[in-house]
Amino acid sequence: MSVRIALLLLASSLVACTPRVELATDEPIVVEIRVSVAHEVRVRLDQEVAALASSEKERAEVSGRSLSELPPWVAAARELLSAKAAGRIGETSRGYVAAVPGHSVTNVVERVNQRRRAEYGKLATKHLAPQSDVEVIAGARRLRQVAPGEMYQDPLGTWRRRP
Known about the structure:
With 163 residues, the chain is of the alpha+beta class. 54% of the residues lie in helices and 7% in strands. It contains five helices and four strands, in the order αααββααββ. Strands 2-1-3-4 form a four-stranded mixed β-sheet. A hairpin with a 5-residue loop joins β3 (151-153) and β4.
């Protein structure tokens, strides 16, 4: 009987004993949890880039006035659209315009790209995203909006005319 009591006490002490591990450090342990909200940011950026692209066309559609009579930003937008329609300038996959080989329109290209770069920078800052991400999103949006007959540069760098 005493053997049974001894075994019972031994078994109950083993069951009641739960191991405990403590980690003692001088500094607090910091656990970083990073949640990806990239999709939501990309959707918002895409919507804002779409607004930028449409405002470019709206500014150019001021009828009945010569380029010299228009404010500089409207004249530049109209000049861009006419150069795109003529096949001298095309959209690139990075959200900027470039001169189609064989055409010299660096003036227009530089002005448009300078303005776009500034707008992309503002969007990147606003959404805490790298400017390169904004450029890629803008490039994809602008390539989808290339009108029939206009030139564009695909991601591999080949110039094509939209059928």
